[in-house]
Amino acid sequence: MKFAFAKPALPKSGTVAVTVANERTLGAAGQDLDQKTGGALTRAMKASRFTGKKEETLAILAPAGVELDRILLVGVGKAEEVGDTALQSAGGALVAALDKSGESEVSVLLDLPAGAGLAPADAAAELAFGGRLRSYKFDKYRTTEKKDAKPSLKKVTVLTADADGAKRAYGRLEGLADSVAFTRDLVSEPANVLHPESLAERCKDLAEVGVEVEVLDLKKLKKLGMGALIGVAQGSAYEPRVVVMRWNGAPDAEDRRPVAFIGKGVTFDTGGISIKPAAGMEDMKWDMGGAAVVIGTMRALAARKAKVNAVGIVGLVENMPSGTAQRPGDVVTSMSGQTIEVINTDAEGRLVLADVLWYAQESFKPRLMVDLATLTGAVIIALGHEHAGLFATDDALADGLLAAGTAVGEPLWRLPMGDAYDKDINSDIADMKNVGSGRGAGSIIGAQFLKRFVNDVPWAHIDIAGVAWSKKDSATVPKGGTGFGVRLLDRFVADHHEN
């Protein structure tokens, strides 16, 4: 879908969308259109439940007096709340309302209510950004879809007094939108297409935007001593991979240490010998969601030439049951030298991250580390599908991530850690075991396990198990892979770590 910007001028035909603030408040352009249509907009709103709340839409067949085909009213909410996320939601709602309407183009009269917190150019760009995020489709494998079921909307033109400024502002957001889409593609791919070896190859595409990519194969992983990660992969026909992605956007910085992002990349998780129930196992193709977010974040930073040194490292494995698979009760030696008793082979993501976290510290001496993983079902019990779980050893790091998540609409909720939880993973025969003694505090136990592989580097763990995939549409996220975390980390870097 194409997004463009132009000076305000009512089109002579086609479809027009008009933004409306709370309590059915029309702006100058909306009032002008209402007058030209003999009050049709006002009458339609009074005859409906549409009040201009955020994400509300109301379609009107264009009345006599204008040559338009259709008018779409789009709510943006209260004036004081009209910021970037509200306008993104409006753009998403607009696209969702017209995507299969039969209309191919729409012009948007963007009326900012008095008190709105954005300049006209930025407002137009944010609305287009939201529309772009909502227009995402993963339909590459559909071959028999009927024409009337396919999206019809091809172009959205946002009308604003500062069209040139809007184009520049949207240009900065377009690379981020592309990176979110890239992430969603990875999460959506079936596991017979996307396995550790093929995902490592996909990472090489980031070289096109200037990211340095290195792939560590099984031979290198054995030499490094990544016994925890290798143990997870040994039941699969596909060899494991670790991919290192580097963006050196601040080569002359006084502190050249990178920020490090680490991702769990289990391309399919059967649970291994501790096999999962059959129902819903197809969802485990997106157990590499953390890795996908790290890959997408590195792409986004490079696409906008972020002035930061960053490294993204993903551990890629497939967790399968077979004659060579890891068994419950096995003991593996991690890269750190610490030994792990594997009580449950379905608690495999933390084994992968243990080695990758250690490798990140040893190889890059980062200023901070943030790992992302679809680590535990327990975080869904705690937080549902509304927030990702956040754990951290550093309050400033946690606060920065929380603020970034709130700003972009990808909220986090910080959960506790402590010695009492840590003691629950002590093993009788090894340095630790990979699960606790009961069902309680599963997400916290997972975080405590990871903490044992973090030294003095400020570290945060984000459990995205509840937010990596959505079974319903929202304003800017169609159901399926969400890409949750890419916008969050991009904003976190922009706010705190760019020179």
From TrEMBL:
Its EC number is 3.4.11.1, 3.4.11.10. Keywords: Aminopeptidase, Cytoplasm, Hydrolase, Manganese, Metal-binding, Protease. It catalyses: Release of an N-terminal amino acid, preferentially leucine, but not glutamic or aspartic acids; Release of an N-terminal amino acid, Xaa-|-Yaa-, in which Xaa is preferably Leu, but may be other amino acids including Pro although not Arg or Lys, and Yaa may be Pro. Amino acid amides and methyl esters are also readily hydrolyzed, but rates on arylamides are exceedingly low. InterPro entries: Leucine_aapep/pepB (IPR011356), Macro_dom-like (IPR043472), Peptidase_M17_C (IPR000819), Peptidase_M17_leu_NH2_pept (IPR023042), Peptidase_M17_N (IPR008283). It is found in: Cytoplasm. Its main location: cytoplasm. Mn(2+) 1 binds at D269, D346, E348. Its cofactor is Mn(2+). The active site is at K276, R350. GO terms for molecular function: aminopeptidase activity. It is an enzyme of class 3 (hydrolase). Binds 2 manganese ions per subunit. Belongs to the peptidase M17 family. Presumably involved in the processing and regular turnover of intracellular proteins. Catalyzes the removal of unsubstituted N-terminal amino acids from various peptides. NCBIfam families: PRK00913.1-2 (NF002073), PRK00913.1-4 (NF002074), PRK00913.2-2 (NF002075), PRK00913.2-4 (NF002077), PRK00913.3-5 (NF002083). This is Probable cytosol aminopeptidase. The gene is pepA.
